[in-house]
Amino acid sequence: MTELQRLADQLDHLFTGPTWHGPAVREILAEVSPADALAHPVAGGHSIVELVHHLDTWNRVVDQRLAGGSPDVGPELDWPKPDIESLETAISKLADSHASLTQAIRSLPAERLFDELPGDSPERPTVYVTLQGIGQHYAYHAGQMAILVRALQTASTPAVARQEHA
User: Fold this and answer.
1) Residue 123 has what DSSP assignment?
2) Cis omega before residue 18 (within 30°)?
């Protein structure tokens, strides 16, 4: 197995499971209702559907950079406002961008692993650093989603029941 195949496999695990750190992105999303996905249970935080759109955006950006493109990532692309589309549609788009990205990773020639990628970062990260980063990005936002799910569950549980679990 090549390093690029290992990186793609790791990204697959972070997206669908199993993972060492906790639930994968898809595992968390499987327990989220459309109403909960739009909620903001943490003041100043993003909603779950905003995180889904953000992950989708960055999958597409990295995929384009691997192909030689250099998309501009302004705030409106980085954190797009969710539209009225269904949660299932947003998850489907994320699954599609994930599949496209992992296929692109598996198709890369091994000699590209330490090539610098185009983009708006002044340090011009390599393919390897970028692919490590997108995996870290999945894990970070999966953790945020897990916290949001817990906050939503806690908010919908009566105070007496919460005290019994403490």
Assistant:
1) T
2) yes
Assigned CATH class of 3-161: mainly alpha
Residue 33 tokens, joined: 């209702």
Q: DSSP assignment, residue 111? A: G
For residue 17 the two structure tokens come to: 């499971």
CA dihedral 41, 56, 29, 19 (to 10 degrees): -110
pLDDT tens string 126-147: 999 999 999 999 999 999 999 9
What residue type is 63 in one-letter code?
D
Question: Which three-class secondary structure string do you get for 17-68?
Answer: CCCCCCCCHHHHHCCCCHHHHHCCCCCCCCCHHHHHHHHHHHHHHHHHHHCC
> 106, 98 in Cβ contact below 8 A?
no
- Only one residue has tokens 């290992």, namely 6
Q: Judging by beta carbons within 10 Å of its beta carbon (0-12, 13-18, 19+), is residue 134 exposed, middle or buried?
A: buried
The CA distance from 166 to 162, in Å, is: 6
- Give per-residue pLDDT as tens, 37-56: 999 999 899 999 999 999 99
